[in-house]
Amino acid sequence: MTNILGISAFYHDSAAALIIDGEIVAAAQEERFTRIKHDASYPVNAINYCLNESKLSLKQIDYISFYDKPFLKFERLLETYVAFAPKGFQSFRLAIPIWLREKLFLKNWLLKELKKIDPSFKSSKLMFSEHHYSHAASAFYASPFKNAIVLTIDGVGEWATTTVAIGNDHELEIVKEIHFPHSLGLLYSAFTYYTGFRVNSGEYKVMGLAPYGKPKYKNLILEKLIDLKQDGSFRLDQSYFNYTTGLTMVNEKFVNLFGKPVRNSETDKLTQFHMDVAASIQAVTEEVMLRVTRSLHKEYGIPNLCLAGGVALNCVANGMILRDKFFKDIWIQPASGDAGGALGSALAVWHKELKKPRKIKSSDLMKGSYLGPSYEQNYIEKELESSGARFIVTSEDEMIEQTAKALADGKVVGWFQGKMEFGPRSLGCRSILADPRSEDMQKMLNLKVKNRESFRPFAPSILKEEVQNWFELDYDSPYMLLVDNVKKDKRINVSEEEKHQVGIGLLNVKRSFIPAVTHVDYSARIHTVSTETNPKFYALINQFKQKTGYPLIVNTSFNVRGEPIVCSPSDAFRCFMGTELDFLSIGNCLLKKSDQSISVIKDYKDSFNND
Amino acid sequence: MNFIIEFLSFIKFRKKYWLVPILLIMAIFGGLIVLSQGSAIAPFIYTLF
Fold first, then answer.
1. In a domain, A232, yes or no
2. Prediction pTM value
3. Do A348 and A245 belong to one domain?
4. Is A72 part of a structural domain of the chain?
5. Which of A86, A91, A504, B31 is found 20 to 30 A from A323 (Cα to Cα)?
6. Which of these, A178, A176, A292, lies nearest to A230 by C-alpha position?
7. Co-location of A454 and A522 in the same domain
8. Is there a domain that residue A538 lies in?
9. What's CA A386's distance to the chain center, in Å?
10. Nearest in space to A138 (alpha carbons), one of A423, A421, A328
């Protein structure tokens, strides 16, 4: 038996993942345990969880792999500073001490930490995988494909920002790379910064904002900022950006190009201009991804595509690649961000270093991405009791029946069942659920439950076999990573007056029978639910269907703005009491807000920093 | 010591010998830079990390 622990840490979204003889056994992000969003610290809690879950001690771990190579990254930093010197001195002054003190000695530091747990731990057990190779491995080795083209796109790893790899059985080889500072991820982040959102967490807000605008600046971006070739390769004109040497993403020249200053999220409102900018960068991103994937298909003729890296979380672009039909099948790693690098680096050791064959499954190896902690019924009851909760305990069938009834009655439900998801999406184990038929639900959930911006859309979870009846999607989307439109026969005719609404006003228009999950452009980020991966969640939606005729519900992550998704029963109870959730199903325990003691209500709104 | 050996083999493997003088200067002044810095907390700059 070979046990391999993968770690990603020290940059953002640290995580740990454990594989045993190539089987993915456990994986979790550190933020869920520490309750610090995007926590980048050494993932001691996630590592402990992985070891406890498999009842292993550190002594029994054969290899530990880190998801990127610090020396290579340091080389890139030095070369960049030299290339731009003397510009960039301020950035250099801030960065180098951290590197000289900590990051350059990461291997020694890791060894020291690991030896605290196991004094006999040998340095030969510690391995390092390149950042983009980790991403590529997380996508290909976990996928259902024997061979595939693997495309990874993110901000930056060591040098690479975009890579193309060819996977064949257990072999995976990177064949093309685009290097820093030319980066699609950083281009998107530059616009995230420009529109007033936080880099590296607000990108999905830009994607959600895009449908409110028109891509008026697409051509300007293509003319001035990015030199995009026919095959999808590109170069960014660095005279508009500041991220190589400065402390901001863009510079004065960029601001002058668009004619408005960088939005300050505290003081400046979102205007139609920001919506148009968001639509434009989204359109450019889609254009780049379509050109790359079309050209890769033409060049290699392989029918399967795997995607990973932060840009692969752009589910609107993913949906377009699917509809483009150049590839017969597409598989996207659900933990496409850096957390997934932990899993990829472990899989890379097993298949690349140890040359072990793959066990390919017709679905995939991710087990629905339900790889995090779960809690026994007894534990849940004890934790709820100690939190001062008032609850009833039922059978599983009754719990599902009562929850479906609450949803059908328009209640907002916290749903905490089974193993926590690995990756940024809630897939029906740590979710807030609601009725998609409600016209007010989108606004209510955003403002009263999630404390977040009113423009943000919500996703539907739908029974897998029903997806084609409600959406134009004809593909499985088990990880909520594909966007497609609501079917025409489920849409509602919009009046002439409503057609002329712009900006946030678009939100006031009811445009389908499922308004809570229909975005302003009729799109939806679809999550298909099957009995194979999540039978309890399937049963709940099915029960909702029996009651209402609708085989889908609203599904959003169980957290508020700036908070990591809940991990333990007490996290769930705190969130339940701090928000306007009406009902909580946690294991077989049912909680109604109206039954709870006022003394356990806590002010929750300001407990987390805005993301 | 291990660190120095590993780093030198990295330079050799990557054939980035021109980085050596820069690294030497940094090694000399590095101590000063590190000591003069009160905290390792830096502003969030994506590409630094």
1. yes
2. 0.94
3. no
4. yes
5. A504
6. A292
7. yes
8. yes
9. 33
10. A423
- How far CA A182 is from CA of A153, A157, A193, A336, A452, in Å, comes to 11, 12, 17, 20, 32
Calpha distance A77→A81 (Å, rounded): 6
Same domain assignment for residues A557 and A419: yes
In angstroms, the Cα distances linking A309 to A131, A151, A275, A344 are 10, 8, 25, 11
Residues of A in Cβ contact (< 8 Å) with B46: 155-156, 186, 189, 199-200, 243, 249
Please name the amino acid found at residue A231: D
Structural domain span for residue A401: 377-600
Is A247 a member of any domain? yes
**CATH number of the domain within which A456 lies:** 3.90.870.20
Q: Is B5 on the interface with A (CB under 8 A)?
A: no
Token representation of residue A18: 């454990």
Chain A touched by B46 (CB under 8 Å): yes
Query: Which residue do the tokens 């950006």 mark?
Result: A241
The answer to whether A97 faces chain B, any CB pair under 8 Å, is yes
Token couple for B42: 């830096």
Rounded to whole angstroms, how far apart are CA atoms A448 and A220? Answer: 38
SS3 A76: helix
Same domain, A193 and A316: yes
Over 60: is that where the pLDDT of B43 sits? Answer: no
Strands (E), A546-609: 552-557, 583-586, 589-592
| Element spanning A256, H or E | helix A252-258
Q: Residues A178-235: pLDDT tens digits?
A: 999 999 999 999 999 999 999 998 999 999 999 999 999 999 999 999 999 999 999 9
Pairwise CB contact (< 8 Å): B49 & A200? no
Long-range contacts of A594-598 (CB under 8 A, 24+ apart): A595/A390, A595/A391, A596/A389, A596/A390, A597/A388, A597/A390
* pLDDT tens per residue across span B14-33: 999 998 888 888 777 766 66
Q: Which residues pair with A288 in a beta bridge?
A: none
Q: What are the CA-CA distances from residue A485 to residues A368, A529, A547 (Å)?
A: 24, 18, 25
Residues A553-594: tens digit of each pLDDT: 999 999 999 999 999 999 999 999 999 999 999 999 999 999
Q: Count H helices, E strands: chain B?
A: 2, 0
**A337 DSSP 8-state letter:** S
Q: Quote the number of domains for chain A.
A: 3
Listed residue (A373, A427, A426, A366) closest to A28, CA to CA? A373
Q: Give bridge partners of residue A305 from the DSSP assignment.
A: A149, A330
In this predicted model, what pLDDT tens digit does every residue of A400-444 receive, in sequence order?
999 999 999 999 999 999 999 999 999 999 999 999 999 999 999
